[in-house]
Amino acid sequence: MAGHSQYSNIMHRKGRQDAVRAKLFSKLAREITVAAKMGAPDPDMNPRLRLAIQNAKSQSMPKDNIERAINKATGGDEENFEAVRYEGYGAGGVAVIVEALTDNRNRTGGAVRAAFTKHGGNLGSTGSVAHMFNRVGEIIYPADAGTADEILEAVIETGADDVKSDADGHLITTTFDTLGTVAGELEKALGEAESVKAVWTPTLSSPVDEDGATSIMKLIATLEDDDDVQVVFANYEIDDDTMAKLTAA
């Protein structure tokens, strides 16, 4: 029975991992389709599409999935998604930015508002918290992509803004407008990145206690579980002890 139980637990975990992976691929595919519809279906002629494909590849999304998402945009698909940004505050005054792609603003807006309300926050107007963040590009390479000096040399050649290297890997930042170009040049020099994405980085952070941290984590999890939500950013600061407790829970 113990062996059977262990097998069941493994399959349960695998099932959850597969579900998470499927949801991620679905969101990546939606971004690719929207990007292809907004411009040319050729990534060389469409910076947003090029970035979407680079991000999908960095998440190990199969080539066939990427091609299907592009073909969906050029095959007369009637779904029309638009990019929407929601901003608000979570527990403890934490600023939260939610980026979504939706074909129904009322549905998505209602779901986002409900998530904020349920977890001790409130949804604000567009621009209410964006001033607390900078919009930048972030490219991550694993530690074995090269030495700190080799990565720095490649970064200088591409014109990226900064790089931080440690035992975990190399974090390269660049302006939002040049992210696609820089990522493409780095791929030529270093191979495919581990992650390529546009992010909102906070200019100031909001410390939260254990209760606040629990509420924020639940809010983010609820938002990220929504099919329309692409990504969530927040400026919370959680100390190591509190984070250890939350992770162990």
Plain-language structure description:
With 249 residues, the chain is of the alpha+beta class. It has two domains: 73 residues, Integrase, N-terminal zinc-binding domain (Arc Repressor Mutant, subunit A, Orthogonal Bundle); 168 residues, YebC, transcriptional regulation domain (Alpha-Beta Plaits, 2-Layer Sandwich), CATH 3.30.70. It is built from eight helices and ten strands. The chain has a four-stranded antiparallel beta sheet. Strands 5-6-4-7 form a four-stranded antiparallel beta sheet. Helix 1 runs parallel beside helix 3 and helix 2 crosses helix 6.
Radius of gyration: 20 Å
Q: What is the CA-CA span between the terminal residues?
A: 27 Å
Low-confidence stretches: 1-14
**SSE string:** HHHEEHEEHEEHEEHEEH
Number of helices: 8
Would you tell me which CATH topology of the largest domain applies? Alpha-Beta Plaits
Give the overall pLDDT as a whole number: 87
Number of domains: 2
Strand order of the largest sheet: 3-1-2-9
User: The biggest beta sheet, please?
Assistant: 4 strands, antiparallel
Portion in helices: 40-55%
Task: Identify the CATH homologous superfamily of the largest domain.
Answer: YebC, transcriptional regulation domain
Structural class: alpha+beta
Molecular shape: globular
Give the total of beta strands: 10
Percentage of β-strand residues? 15-25%
